[in-house]
Automatic annotation (TrEMBL):
Its cofactor is Zn(2+). Pfam families: DUF3458, DUF3458_C, Peptidase_M1, Peptidase_M1_N. Keywords: Aminopeptidase, Hydrolase, Metal-binding, Metalloprotease, Protease, Zinc. This is Aminopeptidase N. GO terms for biological process: proteolysis.
Length: 887
């Protein structure tokens, strides 16, 4: 197997660019099979650069047609072109380079650089796609001003868009037309974008805080204009929110969002021309669910917020990716929370975000691809758009706010922009701004950027009746991760409260400090172990630890079942109220899993389970709680989260245990669940607002519990909801209930669904993904679905809807004991590798945790990994993932 680590790019090797680019003029003659790009770059030697070599990068797919420097053609001896590098040695201090390249956009299935989707042209340049367009110092610390001329056939490509402002447009006489765009801001090449084709837009003028007006546009294919309103609303809300919360304004006269059906990721923040996966733009009640609506709001916000955190201030190099991504995820999370408005709504948003972190980031941090928030090396940067960079990165930013307070955090942000607007900087620069603006020493906080792995914080408590002192001792440790055997202590904010016997928060007075007595405090854990003492505590309290999930750690404390039930009923911190329920559920589910493994009767395996279900009944029926909160409280930890709790993962046993508890819950709470369905039926026109979505969420959780009973009553209920649904949230929930049951109407419902939505790609994705993750779906069924006329491996959304859903969201079937799921996985990784390495590498990550499975499964998984590793023409993307998995 090839394990060429010499190809690795290292953070410690960073050097300044030799040359800086001042201006970039690009002329595109767009043609699907033969596009010509004429680039004119003005370069100047960088006084901090080393040599007088101009170093440009170009992808293998590029054909160099012409190269001129300062007006003269460069002879073949004047430059070197090898290994994707074009080097002009001994270049003058100032140089004008004219480069002509030829590209084949239609043949570009990688969806990086310039490509064609449904007959229209799009670009994707982050991280290293610009080198598929022209030779360029394609690195984020080279920032230039761009002017872009687009020429194309008018009939086929009536719309021509690029970054910034439209300067001029007109006819070229030969059936072609042109548009000239100019971006007034300097930017790195990864933010360049163009779009050309048959598109239509919804547009609005929007008043900005400083009195200016901006033109907002959402561009889509014809026929989709009835699905742009929510994205437009979300954009306007984002603009207002950034003005109010951070004093940041839109700096352009025009801001465009364009939707594309073929896209590797969620969306891209190109300056003034955001390009989005259709999944995060298109919505109406017929096709989109409540969570689609929420995701659209979050992603529109995310890309818009990048305009300051990412574009105005960008990254010095790709190791600093979390500088923009962690910060921007934090901003979009806060935006979504503020849009809900209520405290309880904020808590549910927090719970959702923490669920993602635990479900996806904790396993990453414990597996072969574990890396620090600021990685030290990579083979392929595309593999580092990870949940660690994004979600853990956001948690790191959130900890600044927890430590410094909202105002302190804002001061830090202000100083960051004051110092670095227009620059390409590092995570250290951000930390320095936070520290300096607040007069704080955040030296130790750096370890959150440099050390990988999820820290564990163990709490121990002691109450002394005589002195009325309550002691909390916190100890931290962090497991080894690849390349990092030992870890130094982190600076961890641990937010806590103490509950008295009535469930009320106690005033927290530190020993020797009577100056204040808040009911929630942030303890700063900086040593391996530290003790905190509280005085004046009359009676032993129940501690509420890590409130609001104040740090991305695993908190261990020996709570009794009674303590947890008590917190579940009384904690004033809604996050911890939810958390207590999850801890109890996990405890019971793990006990049940062990019983399944040992073929012991499940009825006796988890004695406390009946009491737990009663606690859930109380929450379900407590109408003083928001429906959305009751929904998350009733949702059991996922099979993936439970897997992480086991030393040796047994997917079948976990599944059986979880299904057993779901059925038991359904049987015990049957009447309450039916009542919840009736009480939370929404009436009138569909609205995606948080309160209505919460009601639908609770109702559908209840319905899906009832569906577990798989009897005529539950069949009738699900079928009725399916037949009557007037929105996608209710429809898809009902379909899920039917598909996972033996209801007689299930095949018919699936077929009707397909016929009704055949023309809506995003809905057909749901149709595939629902079947892929169904309990009744086995490997041969997925193979059959791959032959369906609507399946298309080249479209990432479609590939994800079927292949990824099966491999990642259907653990009990994917991990079939005969290894057939793994063989299927290997085939698909290899097939995708030839089409789209980025998507292939994502799928390859499925096997990250193979070593944690029992020996038989692990061996089969290893075999599948080896098969991929030995496949011919493996991309760097896939190679990196499988090599690290096997290492
Ligand atoms: N910066 C984008 C994510 C993104 C990264 C790479 C891409 O290439 C296929 C596309 C998008 C974001 O954070 O939204
Ligand atoms: Zn981003």
């Amino acid at each position: 197997m090839r394990t060429d680590t010499t190809l690795a790019i290292r953070r410690s090797d960073y050097t300044e660019p030799n040359y800086l680019v001042e201006t970039v003029e690009l002329g595109f003659d767009l043609d699907p099979t033969d596009t010509r790009v004429a680039a004119r770059l003005t370069l100047r030697h960088n006084p901090d650069g080393r040599a007088n070599d101009i170093v440009l990068v170009g992808d293998d797919s590029l054909e160099l047609v012409q190269l001129r420097m300062n007006g003269k053609p460069l002879s073949r001896r004047a430059y070197r072109l090898a290994d994707n590098e074009l080097r002009i040695p001994n270049a003058p201090e100032e140089a004008v380079l004219e480069i002509e390249t030829a590209l084949k956009p239609e043949a570009n299935t990688s969806l990086m650089g310039l490509y064609v989707s449904n007959g229209n042209f799009f670009t994707q340049c982050e991280a290293e796609g610009f080198r598929k367009i022209t030779f360029f110092p394609d690195r984020p610390d080279v920032m230039a001003k761009y002017k872009v001329m687009l020429r194309a056939n008018r009939e086929q490509y009536p719309v021509l868009l690029s970054n910034g402002n439209l300067i001029e447009e007109g006819d070229l006489g030969d059936g072609r037309h042109y548009a000239l765009w100019e971006d007034p801001f300097r930017k790195p090449s990864y933010l360049f974008a163009l779009v050309a084709g048959k598109l239509v837009c919804q547009e609005e003028r929007c008043a900005l805080a400083d009195g200016r007006e901006a033109l907002l546009q959402v561009w889509v294919e014809e026929g989709n204009l009835d699905k742009t309103q929510h994205a437009m609303e979300s954009l306007k809300n984002s603009i207002r929110w950034d003005e109010e919360r951070f004093g940041l304004e839109l700096d352009l006269d025009r801001f465009m969002i364009v939707a594309v059906g073929d896209f590797n990721m969620g969306a891209m923040e190109n300056k003034g021309l955001n390009i989005f996966n259709t999944k995060y733009v298109l919505a109406n009640p017929r096709i989109a669910t409540d969570s689609d609506y929420a995701n659209i709001e979050a992603v529109v916000g995310h890309e818009y917020f990048h305009n300051w955190t990412g574009n105005r201030v960008t990254c010095r190099d790709w190791f600093q990716l979390s500088l923009k991504e962690g910060l921007t995820v934090f901003r979009d999370q806060e935006f979504s929370a503020d849009m809900v408005g209520t405290d309880s709504g904020r808590a549910v948003k927090r719970i959702d975000d923490v669920r993602v972190l635990r479900q996806a980031q904790f396993p990453e941090d414990a597996g072969p691809m574990a890396h620090p928030v600021r990685p030290d090396s990579y083979l392929e940067i595309n593999n580092f758009y990870t949940v660690t960079i994004y979600e853990k990165g956001s948690e790191v930013v959130r900890m600044y706010q927890t430590l410094l307070g909202r105002e302190g955090f804002r001061k830090g942000m202000d100083l960051y922009f004051e110092r670095h607007d227009g620059q390409a900087v590092t995570c250290d620069d951000f930390r320095a701004a936070m520290a300096d603006a607040n007069g704080r020493d955040l030296t130790q906080f750096e370890r959150w950027y440099s050390q990988a792995g999820t820290p564990r914080v163990r709490a121990e408590t002691r109450y002394d009746d005589a002195s009325r002192i309550y002691e909390i001792t916190l100890s931290q440790s962090c497991p080894p991760t690849p390349g990092q055997k030992t870890k130094l202590p982190f600076h961890i904010p641990v937010k806590i409260g103490l509950l008295d016997a009535q469930g009320r928060d106690l005033p927290l007075v530190f020993e020797g400090d009577l100056s204040e007595a808040p009911t929630t405090r942030v303890l700063e854990l900086t040593e391996a172990s530290q003790t905190f003492r509280f005085t004046g505590i009359f009676g032993e309290p129940v501690p509420s630890l890590l409130r609001d999930f104040s740090a991305p750690v695993i908190l261990e404390y020996d709570y009794s079942d009674d303590d947890l039930a008590f917190l579940m009923a009384h904690d004033s911190d809604p996050f911890n109220r939810w958390e207590a329920g999850q801890r109890l559920a996990t405890r019971h589910l793990l006990a049940l899993t062990r019983a399944v493994q040992e073929s012991r009767p499940l009825e006796e395996a988890a004695p406390g389970v009946a009491t737990f279900i009663e606690s859930l009944r109380a929450i379900l029926n407590d109408t003083t709680l928001d429906a959305a909160f009751r929904e998350v409280a009733l949702t059991l930890p996922s099979e993936g989260v439970l897997a992480e709790e086991m030393d040796v993962i047994d997917p079948q046993a976990i599944h059986a245990a979880r299904q057993y508890l779901r059925r038991m819950l359904a049987r015990t709470l049957r009447n309450d669940l039916v009542a919840a369905c009736n009480l939370n039926a929404t009436t009138g026109a569909y609205s995606p607002d948080a309160a209505s979505a919460g009601k639908r969420g609770l109702k559908n959780v209840a319905l899906l519990y009832l569906a577990e009973l798989d009897d005529t009553d539950s069949h009738a209920m699900t079928q009725a909801q399916y037949d009557r649904a007037d929105n996608m949230t209710d429809r898809i929930a009902a379909l899920m209930g039917l598909v996972n049951s033996s209801a007689p109407g299930k095949a018919d419902a699936l077929e009707r669904f397909y016929t009704e939505f055949e023309g809506e790609a995003l809905v057909i994705d749901k149709w595939f993904s629902l079947q892929a993750s169904a309990r009744t779906t086995h490997v041969p069924d997925v193979r059959r679905l791959m032959k369906h006329e609507a399946f298309n491996l080249k479209n990432p959304n479609r590939a994800r809807s079927l292949i990824f859903s099966f491999c990642n969201a259907n653990p009990a079937r994917f991990h079939a004991p005969d290894g057939s799921g793994y063989e299927y996985w290997a085939e698909q990784v290899i097939a995708l590798n030839a089409i789209n390495p980025q998507v292939a590498a994502r799928l390859a990550r499925t096997m990250d945790r193979w070593r944690k499975y029992d020996r038989l499964l692990a061996q089969l998984m290893k075999k599948a990994l080896q098969r991929v590793a030995e496949a011919p023409k493996l991309s760097k993307d896939v190679l990196e993932v499988v090599t690290k998995a096997l290492a």
